[in-house]
Design goal:
Elements: H1 3-14, H2 20-27, H3 31-43, E1 63-71, H4 77-85, E2 91-98, E3 105-111, H5 114-125, E4 130-138
Antiparallel strand pairs: 1-3, 1-4, 2-3
Helix pairs in contact: 2-3
Length: about 160
């Protein structure tokens, strides 16, 4: 992966709907060359898909909760999969990470209400191996990079 590939990825992270023509002008290549580079980036799974920037409140999911999860297991991937598979009406698991430090996992949920958050936390605590959770509610978003259209590169150190 060279600097041009990185610039293409940065441009698409900023706006996944850019045309190959628009990207070509940004990176100073022909449209067919950009098409071929994007095709290779997709084949190598550097680019794994394209998404939309969502207004979660308009979707009926105005509450964002950040849940830290501690398990009693050194290998918590099975526990994580059970958490990912658990469904609660009115909740959407957006991200789930294995993390270092005092906690084992970190989950980001979009929810309809505090009572749904209570159900989510209860369902997490029911998963075998989960010993503790800590939950924070996001008051507002200062910066969300994924899928934002911005003239500046969303990837630090990569100018587009």
């Amino acid at each position: 992966m060279d600097d041009i590939d990185r610039k293409i990825v940065a441009a698409l992270v900023g706006n996944g709907r850019l045309t190959h023509e628009q990207i070509a002008k940004t990176v100073h290549l022909s449209r067919p060359a950009v098409f071929e580079r994007i095709r290779r980036l997709e084949a190598r799974r550097v680019i794994r898909g394209y998404g939309a920037r969502v207004d979660w409140e308009a979707m009926g999911l105005p509450l964002t909760a950040l849940v830290w999860i501690r398990t009693n297991s050194v290998v918590c991937s099975n526990t994580g999969q059970q958490i990912a598979d658990a469904k609660v009406e009115g909740a959407m698991l957006e991200d789930l990470y294995l993390v270092t430090g005092e906690w084992c996992m970190f989950a980001k949920y979009r929810l309809t209400s505090p009572s749904v958050l209570q159900q989510v936390v209860h369902s997490i605590r029911q998963v075998p191996g989960v010993v503790n959770t800590m939950t924070n509610i996001a008051l507002s978003s200062i910066l969300e990079l994924q899928g934002t259209a911005s003239p500046a590169s969303p990837i630090p150190g990569i100018a587009i």
